Amino acid sequence: GENVEQHPSTLSVQEGDSAVIKCTYSDSASNYFPWYKQELGKRPQLIIDIRSNVGEKKDQRIAVTLNKTAKHFSLHITETQPEDSAVYFCAAPDSWGKLQFGAGTQVVVTP
Amino acid sequence: DGGITQSPKYLFRKEGQNVTLSCEQNLNHDAMYWYRQDPGQGLRLIYYSQIVNDFQKGDIAEGYSVSREKKESFPLTVTSAQKNPTAFYLCASSGTGTGEEKLFFGSGTQLSVL
């Protein structure tokens, strides 16, 4: 089955700097890679996703890159702001169509 | 904040007691899911359902049961067989359950043991 590993588990950045979170997956058949953001006390929400037919996707200050050969994908947040502080989860579907989530990255943006 | 509603927000379970967590959605989604969230362990799938009257076990189904009698509802029962039930439980739904579509999450239920 699919195994998703996420690093780092915690990430502290200065406001205005960039943050990068990396995930690796094991099932080479996976074709969809979403990222969810969970603010403290709130529900996870999809912030960006990428499909295997593209290598990079951007949405304002966030971007996701995908390397299918190496089986890893990354979330990039530029010009970080205090509201970016949250837990971020990557995910990938297994062969039964169920999303497998990484363990999460706690991002703290300090002023 | 409509779409998918979980209740209650907080729940306490006594030893040997079964408790039921409610999940209702008005998104007309076919697929519904239950996840358990523990600190540092991400979201782990308990059960999922892609159609009414059908459901499948996820990765950590032992000690839990579900039903899907209506499209809108997917209640989760935490039975006395679940020896470590303290966790944050999240319900989610998606259009068809292909695994390649957006998940909509409820606001969660925090379950604690008395």
How are the elements arranged and paired?
The complex is a heterodimer of chains A (111) and B (114).
Chain A: E1 4-7, E2 10-14, E3 19-25, E4 32-38, E5 45-51, E6 56-59, E7 62-67, E8 72-77, E9 86-93, E10 99-101, E11 105-110
Chain B: E1 4-7, E2 10-13, E3 19-25, E4 31-37, E5 43-51, E6 54-57, E7 64-66, E8 76-78, E9 87-94, E10 104-105, E11 109-113
Parallel strand pairs in B: 2-11
Antiparallel strand pairs in B: 1-3, 3-8, 4-5, 4-9, 5-6, 7-8, 9-10, 9-11
Q: Main attributes?
A:
A: about 110 residues; mainly beta; 6-stranded mixed β-sheet; globular; B: about 110 residues; 7-stranded mixed β-sheet; about 0% helix
Q: Summarize this, please?
A:
The complex is a heterodimer of chains A (111) and B (114). Chain A is an all-beta fold and 111 residues long. Chain A has strands spanning 4-7, 10-14, 19-25, 32-38, 45-51, 56-59, 62-67, 72-77, 86-93, 99-101, 105-110.
Write a structural description.
- The complex is a heterodimer of chains A (111) and B (114).
- Chain A is mostly beta strands.
- Chain A has no helices and eleven strands.
- Chain A has strands spanning 4-7, 10-14, 19-25, 32-38, 45-51, 56-59, 62-67, 72-77, 86-93, 99-101, 105-110.
- In chain A, strands 2, 4, 5, 9, 10 and 11 form a six-stranded mixed sheet that branches. A five-stranded antiparallel sheet of chain A has the order 1-3-8-7-6, with no helix packed on it.
- The termini of chain A are far apart.
- The model of chain A has no long low-confidence stretch (mean pLDDT 94).
- Chain B is mostly beta strands.
- Chain B contains no helices and eleven strands.
- Chain B is globular and about 35 Å long.
- Chain A binds chain B through residues 6, 9, 31-32, 34, 36, 42-46, 49, 51, 89, 93-94, 96-104, and chain B through 35, 40-45, 48, 58, 90, 97-100, 102-103, 105-108.
